[in-house]
Amino acid sequence: MQESLLRSSKTAITVICSAVSQKLNLLFFHSSSIIHYRQHQQQEQRGEEQMQHKRKQEPSNYIDISKSPIGSPSRVQKLIASQSDPLLAKEIFDFASRQPNFQHSYSSYLVLILKLGRSKYFSLIDDLLVDLKSKRYPVTSTLFSYIIKIYGEANLPDKVLKTFYKMLEFNFKPLPKHFNRILEFLVSHRNYVKPALDLFNNAHRYGVSPNTKSYNILMRALCLNGELSVAYKLFNQMFKRDVLPDVESYRILMQGLCRKSQVNGAVDLLEDMLNKGFVPDTLSYTTLLNSLCRKKKLKEAYKLLCRMKVKGCNPDIVHYNTVILGFCRDGRAMDACKVLDDMESNGCLPNLVSYRTLVGGLCDQGMFDEAKRYLEEMISKGFSPHFSVSHALLKGLSDVGKVEEACRVLEELLKHGEAPHTDTWMIMVPRICEVDDFGRMGEILDKIMMVEIKGDTRIVDAGVRLEEYLIKKIQTKWRV
């Protein structure tokens, strides 16, 4: 009888243990076995005496997690973080919340908010924030950085704006990084530039002081919106509020003035900048040089180019090419040649754009001998002339009767593996055939055979004159 009762008791214990194990495995996806669970509980019990003193010092709302049947908040947080499905992570979070003697860690909220945000479950995020606030968790800046990022990536400027006031509800003063991120997201939408400006103007009421970056964000947006006067007002306000502008602040206004074709105002701003001890960056100079060249104030552009080095900013290839282009467009290619010569003396080597622009400008003015010299220099340095450049030069030389010189240029191109365009062949072949005794054309054809001929550079498309030339050459050969 006693043996029978003993066997029944063992069976009951086995069934109960099995049921508990299955339940834990089901709820936590086999995150730990029942043996690990018991070991964990035993470890916590062994530390009970050490915890007694701490509990007495905890606030009245302290929850004794050692009595939680699902383990520590750290374990739950790891389980939530491991889920790829955000809704499943939320179910685990909710299940743990309902357990007696359990309170989530702050990290669990952060992890879950980020997961839900990436999948655009925004209403669930709102619920979590309400829960955080009601339970008076001490929030950190990371939480709001996450939320601003989530709503910004989801293209929800209204939600981004409301996040500012949400921080205040948590008695958390927005940091400059939060404030600036909010402004950046708002001004990226044209319809929210005005709300961004309103927020900016009212920020001091909430104890938030805009910094230099805040001003730059607003000024750039206002300039792009054509509201230059408002941007200028903000710029002047910086000095009154002891906010020091930086190089970018000046550049933003310079670009705004140049867009409005107020290049003189931009130059004055540069002078003011230099007088205050700022060293303009390369982009500031590029902005001014472009505007001066477009306004055909090439003398001023060249002076500015020469002043750059003296003022602590070495001109680069972009600055030189900008002025070269300006002179060429204004029909002053010889002045452009002087700029190119200055480049090399200042240690800045001309590039492909420099030569192409200059050769094209010289050809436009009929200065074919100079153009030929720079084209040859260009090719000797390994630069490939665009077909439009070589075409302009070959056509120009042919038009003024310098066919022999055009042939030399053509041979130089072929020698360096540059096959002229079909349009160029259609001009050159008839001219060569008119003055040639068939010898020169034959030499050129021999050299053509050594060049990779592409679809748009095929000499056979040059037309009837080449066909006539070849027929005459064959007839001459047969006569001999």
TrEMBL record:
- Repeat (PPR) positions are 140-174, 211-245, 246-280, 281-315, 316-350, 351-385, 386-420
* InterPro entries tied to this protein: PPR-containing_protein, PPR_rpt, TPR-like_helical_dom_sf
For this UniProt record, the keywords arranged alphabetically read as follows: Repeat
Which stretches are tagged as biased composition: Basic and acidic residues? 41-52
Biological process according to GO: Group II intron splicing; mitochondrial respiratory chain complex I assembly; mitochondrial RNA processing
Q: Per the record, a Pfam family? A: PPR_2
Work out whether the entry's keyword set contains Repeat. Answer: yes
Region called Disordered, residue ranges:
39-64
Any single GO CC term annotated in Swiss-Prot or TrEMBL for this entry = mitochondrion
**Would you identify the family this protein belongs to, as annotated?**
Belongs to the PPR family. P subfamily.
Which NCBIfam families does this one have? Answer: PPR
The entry's protein name is: Pentacotripeptide-repeat region of PRORP domain-containing protein
Organism of this sequence: Manihot esculenta
